[in-house]
Amino acid sequence: MDFAIKRMRWLPSTVLLALALGMASAGGSWAQLNGPRIPAPLLDENTAQGASGTLVLAGGCFWGVQGVFQHVKGVTAAVSGYAGGDQKTARYDRVTTGATGHAEAVRISYDPRLISYGRLLQVFFSVVHDPTQLNRQGPDVGSQYRSAIFPLDAEQARIAEAYVSQLKASRAFETAIVTKIERERAFYAAEDYHQDFLAKHPGHPYIVMHDLAKIRDLQQTFPALYRADPVLVAASSAAR
Questions:
Q1: Residue ranges of domains in the chain, CATH in brackets
Q2: How far apart are CA 165 and CA 180, in angstroms?
Q3: Average pLDDT, the chain
Q4: Which residue among 31, 61, 79, 164 is the active-site one?
Q5: What is the DSSP string of 6-75?
Q6: Sorting pLDDT into bands at 50, 70 and 90, what band is 27?
Q7: Is 61 a catalytic residue?
Q8: Is 182:150 a contact under the CB 8 Å cutoff?
Q9: pLDDT tens digits along 168-221
Q10: Nearest-CA neighbor of 1 among 107, 130, 132, 145?
């Protein structure tokens, strides 16, 4: 979370929102200012494999990552949580110290008949986050905000590794991609108050400044994938 905003909480909510809107309109998102139109992966899964698939990604504060994927067609659930560390430290108060090995992550369930693993990775690299920022994302600093892919099997690892190599070879980004591919890492769902945070609090200053533009970028960059009504944890049993 943006600690500058935490220090501003004494201000009236109307003032906070006005400041956030002004900063957002002045700056724009990373994708709007710098985001390249990156290619789709050359290697992808067989979309006829089954009726469901799952992937786990980390790209900064999970509020925005979850919020974007909840607006992607074919996604059936997106749950905020933690990956990379032990179960006993999978708590927000511990993860924010940066000493647990966890990253704020999102577990995404999807229908492979409607969208593929590789296509979801393309969205991840295009509009969800900046994969060239090392152990940070925007205002959030620490290894818990790192860019990472947590493959659930050898096939996912192979596709993710091939795609990162493809993006590096094509020089899709001006600076080096720092995304880690971390195998055999369990995912643990975050506390209830973190679930559907963007949908529940669209006027929160952090969301306005750092995340709403990502939803617009998704709609503009991938119009065929955009869904106006997000798929929410509150409406499913995905986090149970």
A1: 3-235 (3.30.1060.10)
A2: 12
A3: 87
A4: 61
A5: HHTTTS-HHHHHHHHHHHHHHH--HHHHT---PPPPSS---TTS-S-EEEEEEES-HHHHHHHHTTBTTE
A6: very low
A7: yes
A8: yes
A9: 999 999 999 999 999 999 999 999 999 999 999 999 999 999 999 999 999 999
A10: 145
